[in-house]
From TrEMBL:
It comes from Amphibacillus xylanus (strain ATCC 51415 / DSM 6626 / JCM 7361 / LMG 17667 / NBRC 15112 / Ep01). This is Stage V sporulation protein AE. Keywords: Membrane, Transmembrane, Transmembrane helix. PANTHER family: STAGE V SPORULATION PROTEIN AC-RELATED (PTHR38450), STAGE V SPORULATION PROTEIN AEB (PTHR38450:SF2). The chain crosses the membrane at residues 6-24, 31-48, 80-112. It holds the Pfam family SpoVAC_SpoVAEB. The gene is spoVAE.
């Protein structure tokens, strides 16, 4: 049952993004940015963590989870270090994912030759 809920919730998040692009004629960049902001707002109100507890990977894999991670890290570090923690917390929580994306993109660029 866990896999079904992960599939349905993750699919629903993706459907929302696709509808934004198709119905409102928005660019993928706009849609990605909007989804990150939506994830951040939901975490700010404490609504994204229960969604992660319910749907697991269905809520952590889509781009909305990145916004959740930014706000979650900032709020955690702000409790400990105050206003300085807001800036450092965002980067501390998301740095491993961003670093992995950069490293794997570099490896992919070195191994495969783009067709142009």
């Amino acid at each position: 049952m866990v896999f079904l809920w992960a599939f349905l919730v993750g699919g629903f998040i993706c459907v929302i993004g696709q509808l934004i692009m198709d119905l409102f004629k928005k660019t993928p960049g706009f849609t990605l940015s909007l989804m990150v902001v939506i994830g951040a707002i939901l975490d700010g109100f404490g609504l994204y963590e229960p969604l992660i507890d319910f749907a697991g990977a269905g809520a952590t894999v889509p781009i909305t989870s990145f916004g959740n991670s930014l706000v979650h890290g900032a709020l955690q570090e702000a409790e400990i270090y105050g206003i300085i923690g807001v800036a450092t917390g965002m980067f501390e929580v998301t740095s491993s994912g961003i670093s992995a994306a950069i490293i794997f993109a570099m490896i992919g660029a070195l191994i495969f030759k783009p067709k142009g």
